[in-house]
Every structure is written in C-alpha cells, then in structure tokens.
Write a structure and sequence with these properties.
UDP-N-acetylglucosamine-lysosomal-enzyme N-acetylglucosaminephosphotransferase activity, 8 strands, membrane, transmembrane, two-stranded antiparallel ribbon, single chain, extended, 4-stranded parallel beta sheet, 4 domains
Length: about 300
C-alpha cells in the first residue's frame, strides 16, 4: 500500500470517528433529522418539477409565481421565465388616421408631384400593404381578446398594446398589468413615422421597454377558446412550437418531403425547388442513377448517367 492510500485510509477513519462523535452528542440526532428533512424536501421538489413540467425547472428558486394577470400561483406547471403579450392595434374610425390615408391617396392621384422623398416612400408603403380604411376597421375585437387571455392564460405577466397614439375608449388605463405603447416609443428613427406597414412595426416590438425575453405577439382579432400553457408555445427541451394552418406542399410533384436530404438521389426531387434533393443529387449515387454537375444540360442542370 502506497503513502497515498495510507493517507486516504486515515482520512476516512478520521471522518467516521467525527461522524460517530457528532451523532453521539446531544444535538446529533436533531442535526440528522434536519438534514434528512431538507434532503427529502429537495427530492420531492425535483420530482414535482419533473412530472408537472416535463423537466426540472431552472428558475424555480428565482421566480415570483404570483407575478401575472390573475395574481395567483401557477408554480405547478409554470416552469418558465415571465411571458408577456403584445398587441398591435389601430382605430380605423380615427379622423387623423383617415385623413393621413386620404392625404397619401391624393398624392397618388397627382402622380406624386411636389411630394418629398419621405412622402413617396410612405405612398409606396401604403400601396404595398394595401392600406385603406377597410383594413383598419375596428369591431372592438381587442376587448374580447383581452378577456380571453385573462380567462384562459392567466399566467401572462403583462400586456402591451402598440398603437399610433390611439387608445380604446373602453380601456382601463389604471390596470397595472397593461401598458399602451406608441410607435414613437419603439422607432429609433422618428422620420419613419407615421408608419402603416405591419412588418415594420413588428420588427420593432422587441424595443418595448421592460418587455419579457420571450413574448407572444397577437393581432387584436385573435381569441383563445380554451386553457393554454406556456409549453404550448415554447419548451426548454424543444424550443419554439410552430403550428401551420395548412399542410406544407411538396417542393415538387412526386417528391415526398421525407425524401429530401435522406442521402439518396431521387429523380422527382432533383429540381431547384427542392434544392436538388437537399444536395443528395450532387455527385452522389442514387436509386439507380448517378448525377454529376455538367453545367446547363441534362435534368435541371445535371447529367443523367445510368449505372
């Protein structure tokens, strides 16, 4: 036995004697009981977090579980950082908005004569997005969308409503869980205002002061009809959940989606729309065929060579 093993053995014996001494003392049993309770409680919390959320919650010790619309704890299944909701809203009957749209329509009728560069850009924006009064018509959908969030998604921390300065007449501005944000608050370049383009506004939403790291963006005509949870939108294991309104069409007729990028060159998928079978047909042997780059000849720029 080497010196290292001797010192390890002595250390183990010393620790054993110390443990026996502590357990045999007046407070030994009490100390053992407290340690057992703490260990058991920690284990139960880990198990609860695992089964209720599918994972062990990394924020369980840091979050204020009642920091949400309903003001109650969602700890059993809310294993996430705070999540906010953002709306974009406009009042289509607002006289200033209608006047602004009409002004640019008149510029268009005049062929853009005497218009500044900024006005011409706004005119193109209106044309591109087909912005007119009917598009901005308000039927108070926002009122009922907010109610659906409070009822079915009470775990939401805060709601932000982004507008061009308009405020719904029925909105309770004293609610501490709701904030109205103007376009001027999030657009760094004020010369870009007024703005009628939804994509332009959406690309600035992350600049809302105090907004959560992850937030849900909704239009005012979006309603929840059943209870939802954060994992319906995001999970720590799989990231963001994406729901498609319709099936994604095949990239080419006869090309099954699972064939693309599967390591075999499939003739129906060997087109530019399928990225040439996800690269499978570039200098690789396929199912009964061998494709190699030969310039603008052959099948979609490839030369077919039978084996």
């Amino acid at each position: 036995m080497g010196m290292r093993d001797v010192w390890i053995s002595r250390g183990q014996k010393l620790m054993q004697r110390q443990c026996y001494t502590i357990l045999g003392s007046r407070w030994g049993v009490a100390l053992l009981f407290v340690a057992s309770v703490v260990t058991l409680n920690t284990l139960l919390q880990v198990i609860d977090g695992w089964f209720s959320s599918g994972i062990v919650c990394p924020h369980r010790c840091d979050m204020n579980w009642k920091d949400n619309l309903r003001g109650r704890s969602f700890e059993k299944y809310l294993c996430y950082e705070p999540i906010d909701v953002v709306y974009t809203w406009v009042n289509g009957s607002d006289s200033r908005l209608l006047g602004s749209i009409e002004y640019y329509k008149q510029l268009d009728m005049q062929g853009g004569l005497n218009a500044t560069l900024a006005e011409l850009q706004k005119l193109e924006e209106l044309k591109r997005d087909k912005a007119d009064a009917s598009r901005f018509k308000d039927n108070e959908e926002l009122r009922y969308s907010l109610r659906s969030i409070e009822h079915f998604a009470g775990w939401v921390r805060h709601i932000y409503i982004v507008t061009n300065g308009q405020i719904p007449s029925w909105l309770d501005l004293t609610n501490p869980r709701l904030t109205v944000v103007q376009h001027s608050d999030i657009f760094l370049n004020q010369s870009h205002l007024p703005v009628f383009s939804s994509p332009a506004i959406e690309s600035h939403l992350h600049r809302i002061k105090g907004i959560s790291k992850r937030f849900i963006y909704l239009n005012d005509d979006t309603f929840f009809g059943n209870y939802i949870r954060p994992e319906d939108f995001y999970t720590h294991n799989n990231g963001y959940n994406i729901y498609l309104s319709w099936a994604v069409p095949d990239c080419a007729s006869g090309c099954v989606g699972t064939w693309v990028g599967d390591g075999y060159c499939d003739t129906p998928c060997n087109v530019s729309g399928c990225n040439f079978d996800g690269g499978d047909c570039i200098g690789k042997k396929g199912r009964g065929a061998d494709y190699s780059w030969q310039g603008n000849i052959g099948y979609e720029g490839y030369q077919y060579q039978s084996e």
